[in-house]
Amino acid sequence: MSGVVDLGAVKAASEAKAKAEQARADASRQGGGAAAAPGSLVIDVDEAGFERDVLTRSTEVPVVIDFWAEWCQPCKQLGPLLERLAVEYNGRFVLAKVDVDANQMLMQQFAIQSIPAVFAVVAGQALPLFQGAAPEAQIRETLDQLIQVGEERFGLTGIVVDAEAQGEAGQMPAEVPAGPYDALLEAAAQALDANDFGGAVQAYKNVLADDPVNVEAKLGLAQAELLGRVQKMDPQQVRKDAAEKPDDLATQMAAADLDLVGGHVEDAFGRLVETVRRTFGDDRDAARLRLLELFEVIGPDDPRVAAARTALARVLF
């Protein structure tokens, strides 16, 4: 996934916003219009209906696209979680599910390399959100930021859902947790404490191979990988290279790692946000993913993470 996707036929954002405002004004004059059924919050989308179901709909509400396939095991864990959140958010976004096996053209258009892959389309503009399964807390933060940007930049306030039918839609199956993994997680923590970062990484990956959304394993893996990278660095040389090569992706990511380990959290986040702004294509996506990894290390509830997510969203949008 590489940056904002060029959809070609999509209208400019300002025109999309005007359409959304006009639609809400028309609904208001007609007494609020017909409320959407809860079933319309989660829709299956194919190539033939993509313009109608995603592009046009995105002028009224952010559309989150879940690229999945029947054979993909992580998809089967992420999909129900996204569906449950779509119902819980009650019309603040719509979830569009795309089976990549049946819609190869869409897969190519969005440059999907692996699944699950999650994108958003807001006022006709598409951008990648995350790839692979992610912790629920991280997904919620991403959705909250997406909704905030949709409201502030494009005036998208979501759709009205039929309250009487909402109860039935809320009965979607919840995630079935896998586990327990107490022994594996304890072994990983002991390896981390002993500075055996390679062993800790492998132990956490063993958990995630079976339970890709395990929050403790995701956090531990991010910490172990970070410490393993920093352990091999010459701090003085890294900072010298970062100062001399502001456009070099590798040196900026290395300096951000050092910043974080040294307690300079805002500096680390700011450096990577700036790197995302200055880069394109695969380099931009690599910088974005490294920033998300560092968010995992600090934790989603930290206000510095929230501030950096806001800054990242501004750069991406």
From TrEMBL:
InterPro entries, per database record: Thioredoxin-like_sf, Thioredoxin_domain, TPR-like_helical_dom_sf
GO BP terms in the entry: cell redox homeostasis; response to stress
Domain Thioredoxin: 36-148
Highest taxon, organism lineage: Bacteria
Protein name (Swiss-Prot/TrEMBL): Tetratricopeptide repeat protein
Record PANTHER family: THIOREDOXIN, MITOCHONDRIAL
Database matches in SUPFAM superfamilies: Thioredoxin-like
